[in-house]
Write a structure and sequence with these properties.
Length: about 130
């Protein structure tokens, strides 16, 4: 199982592959599952700006496409442009969708380049659920 620091390093690594010619704001994300498997994703933009994809959702989509069936435990998110690169509202809703009975942990890099963490239930209270 990767440590939080290692997960952030994986997020940092994939942020270098971001396709972000419009915002010039690279983001990398790395999700960790109960199986110990990890999956990375970066943001991918489009000249029709609203079609841009976030790093977090690409990482989760990657896990699903690879056939991951265990539970999502954590996500590390990194951008060289800002400390504590919190997930946008849409990505919070995606994390909630896949959190099931687990309060998914969000690992970020703080101002001192240390890991800090938040929980999805705290940063997306009263979230939308069908049932
Ligand atoms: N972005 C992400 O990848 N994740 C977020 O949670 C928020 C924003 C990307 C989208 C866009 O390519 C760039 O950051 C600037 O908004």
């Amino acid at each position: 199982m990767l440590s939080d620091k290692e997960l952030l390093e994986k997020a940092q690594e994939v942020s270098k592959k971001a396709y972000c010619p419009y915002s010039k704001f690279p983001v990398g994300a790395c999700v960790l599952y109960e199986s110990g498997n990890i999956y990375q994703g970066c943001n991918v933009e489009n000249s029709s700006y609203g079609l841009s994809l976030c790093a977090e959702r690409n990482a989760i989509s990657n896990a699903i496409a690879q056939g991951e069936t265990s539970k999502l435990l954590k996500i590390a998110i990194y951008s060289p442009k800002t400390k504590k690169c919190f997930p946008c509202g849409a990505c919070r809703q995606w994390l909630q969708e896949f959190s099931h009975d687990i309060n998914v942990e969000i690992i970020l890099e703080d101002e001192n380049s240390n890991c800090c963490s938040y929980f999805i239930n705290d940063i997306l209270p009263y979230s939308f659920k069908l049932v």
